[in-house]
């Protein structure tokens, strides 16, 4: 890992912001990705204990999202150690990452910085089966369900209770009623969590503004992969977005590129390439995420085994990959 170079960048960023810095990277390398998950809370606690209470703490964040309950717990934990909490976004902070930003006092976004909608998809044992993978279930988007019902009302023009009841019965025959109940619970949950986080972010904002932001992030953008630039976050959402100075932005981008190179985010993970010549089997370790401060570094490690397979047909893959364990591991 390029920790020595990163430590220099982290120190310079801390000096510029007069703040202690923690970096959290969930890798999005093809075939080897990680997501925001509850297991980071204990790891962050160890970093924060090592840092101690400070006036300001900043979180350097790169993520495509993950568990939507974790941001509320993480934001509250970080705030136990500081009076001012800021998030630094050099590039991507999607979904659950955006929710973390909503709980910060300040969002420092670079030119390439992006947020995203926070409308969740839910998956449980009652979801429809995936026809392409018999044991898999299709995630159900909360907003897709409401959009279907709105389609019946607004586009098809159905108004009567009888017609709307028929539309709902049709839906419940395709999507299990308990799955729909889970969708409604997540509909309420995401709005409740966003409201709590925004009250931390915008303590002086009106309830009307908070509701507008929630509606914008859950309903108005129509696509979960819509990317929100810093201009839009500042102008349309009126979030507390700060543009970094030229020097700070260069430091943030250099730090991101160091992580990108170290985690090989732009290179697909190809297990077959790890087997040399006549080797039939090899054990491997690969890093999928990092939580780092000047005091410590933890890495999310995949440990696995790659075995060469005899290919009797084109459908049989050349190698079999078995993940033996995956966990956060303290490097220092």
In short:
With 332 residues, the protein is α/β, with parallel strands linked by helices. The chain contains 10 helices and 14 strands.
Describe the structure.
α2 runs parallel beside α3 (70-79), α4 packs parallel to α7 and α7 (177-201) crosses α8. The chain is 40% helix and 25% strand. Among the domains are: 3-116 and 227-266 and 287-295, 2-enoyl-CoA Hydratase, Chain A, domain 1; 122-185, no CATH class. The protein has helices at 3-17, 40-51, 70-79, 96-102, 142-155, 161-174, 177-201, 207-220, 230-235, 246-262, and strands at 20-26, 28-29, 32-33, 54-62, 82-89, 106-109, 121-122, 129-130, 133-137, 140-141, 241-242, 281-293, 297-308, 319-330. It has an eight-stranded mixed sheet, with helices on both faces. Strands 2-3 form a two-stranded antiparallel ribbon. It is built from ten helices and 14 strands. The longest helix is centred in the middle third of the chain and has 25 residues, at 177-201. It is flat, with a radius of gyration of 22 Å. By secondary structure, the chain is an alpha/beta fold.
Separation of termini? Answer: 12 Å
Portion in strands: 15-25%
> Structural class, please?
alpha/beta
SSE pattern, N- to C-terminal: HEEEHEHEHEEEEEHHHHHEHEEE
Counted by DSSP, the helix tally is: 10
And the CATH topology of the domain at 3-116 and 227-266 and 287-295?
Answer: 2-enoyl-CoA Hydratase, Chain A, domain 1
Helix content percent band: 40-55%
Characterize the overall form: flat
CATH architecture of the domain at 3-116 and 227-266 and 287-295: Alpha-Beta Complex
């Amino acid at each position: 890992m390029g920790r020595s170079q990163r430590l220099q960048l982290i120190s310079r960023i801390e000096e510029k912001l007069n703040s202690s810095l923690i970096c959290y990277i969930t890798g999005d390398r093809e075939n080897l990705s990680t997501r925001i998950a509850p297991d980071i809370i204990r790891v962050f606690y160890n970093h924060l204990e090592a840092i101690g209470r400070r006036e300001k703490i900043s979180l350097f964040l790169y993520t495509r999202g993950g568990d939507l309950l974790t941001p509320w717990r993480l934001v509250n934990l970080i705030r136990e150690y500081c009076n001012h909490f800021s998030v630094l976004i050099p590039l991507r902070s999607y979904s659950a990452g955006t929710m973390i930003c909503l709980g910060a006092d300040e969002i420092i976004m670079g030119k390439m910085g992006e947020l995203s909608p926070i409308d969740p998809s839910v998956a449980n044992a009652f979801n429809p089966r995936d026809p392409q993978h018999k044991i898999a279930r299709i995630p159900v988007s909360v907003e897709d369900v409401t959009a279907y019902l709105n389609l019946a009302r607004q586009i098809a023009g159905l108004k009567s209770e009888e017609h709307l009841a028929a539309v709902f019965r049709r839906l419940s025959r395709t999507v299990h009623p308990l799955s729909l109940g889970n969708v409604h619970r997540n509909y309420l949950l995401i709005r409740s969590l966003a409201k709590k986080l925004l009250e931390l972010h915008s303590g002086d904002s009106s309830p009307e503004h908070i509701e507008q932001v929630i509606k914008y992030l859950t309903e108005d953008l129509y696509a979960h992969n819509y990317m929100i630039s810093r201009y839009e976050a500042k102008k349309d959402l009126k979030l507390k977005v700060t543009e970094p100075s030229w020097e700070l932005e260069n430091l943030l981008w250099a730090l991101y590129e160091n992580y990108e190179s170290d985690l090989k985010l732009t290179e697909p993970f190809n297990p077959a390439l790890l087997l040399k010549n006549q080797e039939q089997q090899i054990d491997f370790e690969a890093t999928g995420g990092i939580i780092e401060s000047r005091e410590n570094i933890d890495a999310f490690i995949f440990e696995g085994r790659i075995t060469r397979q005899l290919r009797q047909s084109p459908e049989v893959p050349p190698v079999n990959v078995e993940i033996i364990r995956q966990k956060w591991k303290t490097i220092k």
